[in-house]
Amino acid sequence: MGIVEKIQEIEREISRTQKNKATEYHLGLLKAKLAKYRQQLLEPASKGGAKGEGFDVLKSGDARVALTTMTVFEAEEQSEFALIVADFREVGFPSVGKSTFLSTVTNTESVAANYEFTTLTCIPGVIEYQGANIQLLDLPGIIEGASQGKGRGRQVISVAKTADLILMMLDATKGDVQRSLLETELESVGIRLNKPRPNLYFKRKNTGGIKFTQTTPLTHCNEKMIQTILHEYKIFNAEIVFREDSTVDEFIDVIQGNQVYLKCLYVYNKIDQLSLEEVDRLARLPHSVVISCEWNLNLDYMIQKIWEYLSLIRVYTKKPGNAPDLGPEDGIILRGGCTVEHCCHALHRTLASQFRYAIVWGTSTKFSPQRVGIHHVLDHEDVIQIVKK
Ligand SMILES: Nc1nc2c(ncn2[C@@H]2O[C@H](COP(=O)(O)OP(=O)(O)OP(=O)(O)O)[C@@H](O)[C@H]2O)c(=O)[nH]1
Ligand SMILES: [K+]
Ligand SMILES: [Mg+2]
């Protein structure tokens, strides 16, 4: 029996099994088995496996993702303004309008047509917004079974995993079925959308048996269940701390350790085809935006949302005795949550080592201006002056 069949068999058994106290352990075990097989399925395909021809953008795209990390900035000689490239990916069913969107909001043309799978490779474009260059990758549509290698599923999924944000584009006329099918596909390959990382400590050890601690009452798991699952993974020595009421699935995620937690915006396109009531309903769903590429409806709002979901911030620098330049092209783009240290690296590779203190004007400080240290976390539209040793 192949892995795909084994997966299907376990999925059938899970759906057949009634959920109650008596079946709890059995279900936990089945879930662990399922997670293991799914991981095997995603491991690099053996020799003859289809590797991404035309997906080589995938590699340079990945490198560009790394550009958003501060270490890359260290290697660059950019003194005044650093350019940041934030990546996000578009994922969706065929013919929902992904290519039309790319061609509308970027300078790149991606062929759009009314037949499915017009786009078979990965087409990159750039959205310029608030002085940031946001890379947009138009990917082929995902179909049901993509996680099992159908369509270009595997390649699309591996590109999607490297994104900072997934734009899940849906055909608003096709109902909610597309959304849940795509979610299931992405879930089954370890992509968790708009979910926080479980607050759960797990560490394998060489000796000492299973050390289990909980800092809060648990309603989904207990020690015996955890032992059972760990046995399935042949783990006999480990330290586990449950810091919140995590589920069995979350525990399995942490053992597997290969999940990607991504933000996702659901984009309902083609609202020109819907009644106002229906548009209104979709627009109120969580993490959702409604647009029409054809009628140019709501596209600006959507790009604003992308910016928000990427949590990028703009920070302005200022020299002593000078006013800061606050024009639309001034300042540097940084990740939300970044510190003065990250900012130093973005400005110049040696700046952090010469750092004495910084003076910050803006919402990140109690007083404005305020003297801060290198670990101070910056906010959008802060102004910073760095004082060197
Ligand atoms: N009514 C309407 N049609 C649209 C809209 N946006 C795109 N389309 C049409 O939908 C069809 C598919 O558009 P594409 O941009 O090729 O879709 P895609 O998602 O890139 O498709 P694949 O590359 O095949 O996966 C085309 O005929 C577009 O003209 C829209 O806002 N409203
Ligand atoms: K198409
Ligand atoms: Mg396309």
List the helices and strands and how they pair.
Layout: H1 3-16, H2 24-42, H3 57-67, H4 70-74, E1 85-92, H5 98-105, E2 123-129, E3 132-138, H6 153-160, E4 165-171, H7 177-188, E5 191-193, E6 200-204, E7 210-214, H8 223-232, E8 238-242, H9 248-256, E9 260-269, H10 276-283, E10 288-290, H11 299-310, E11 312-317, E12 332-335, H12 340-347, E13 355-361, E14 370-372, E15 383-388
Parallel strand pairs: 1-3, 1-4, 4-9, 5-9, 7-8, 9-10, 11-15
Antiparallel strand pairs: 2-3, 6-8, 11-12, 13-14, 13-15
Helix pairs in contact: 1-2, 2-8, 2-9, 8-9
Residues 94-95, 113, 115-116, 118 line the site of potassium ion.
Outline of the structure:
Keywords: GTP-binding, Nucleotide-binding. The protein has helices at residues 3-16, 24-42, 57-67, 70-74, 98-105, 153-160, 177-188, 223-232, 248-256, 276-283, 299-310, 340-347, and strands at residues 85-92, 123-129, 132-138, 165-171, 191-193, 200-204, 210-214, 238-242, 260-269, 288-290, 312-317, 332-335, 355-361, 370-372, 383-388.
Rg over CA atoms: 24 Å
Number of strands: 15
Q: Which structural class do the helices and strands define?
A: alpha/beta
- Global mean pLDDT: 79
